[in-house]
Structure prediction request, 183 residues.
Amino acid sequence: MQAEIHPQVYDAKVTCASCGATWVTTSTKKELRIDVCSKCHPFFTGEAARLIDIEGQVDRFYKKLSARQEYVETQKAKEVEANSPDRSVDDLGVSPRAIDSLKKAGILTIGQFLAKMAEGDAALLEISGFAQSSLTTAKKKLRSLGFELPVAPEPAPKAPKAPKAAAPEATADATETPEAAAE
Prediction:
C-alpha cells in the first residue's frame, strides 16, 4: 500500500436538524449535519402512509372522477347542441349566397330548413339563390350532424305518354343473313 494517498478518517458526530438526534460514525469530516434521519423520516417512522392519506389520495381520485364527469357532461351538451334544430342555418356548410337567400326567405334555423324540406325539394329550390348543389351539400351536412331528413311527399303522377307507333317491320330480304341468302 502506498503511503499518504488515503484521506484522514475521524470519528464524526452526526446531528439531525429535524429531531436533534446524534450518533457517532466514521467519516473524513469531524462533524456531519443532516436534515432528516431514520428516526424522523416519514418512511422509516411509518408516517409515510399517513402523509399520503393526508395529502388526499382519495381526494385526488374524486377530483379526477369529477373532472371526468364534467368532461362527459360537456361532451353530451355539445352533442345535444349539435343536434338542436335551433342551430343557425350558417352551420349547413353551404355557400354564403345560399345562406343569404335562405335568410331572406325567413329560414333562420335548421328546424325551419327541415320543415321546408318536408314540403319537398322543389319548395327549397324555388328560393331564389338556392340551387341543387346547395341542397345536396345541406343534406350531407344534416346527415353528418345526425338529423333525420324528412321524406318529401310523392309528386303527383304525370299523365302517361301516348305509346309510340311501332316501327314498320323490315322486309324479309333485308333481314336475311348472307348465309341464308346463299342457301
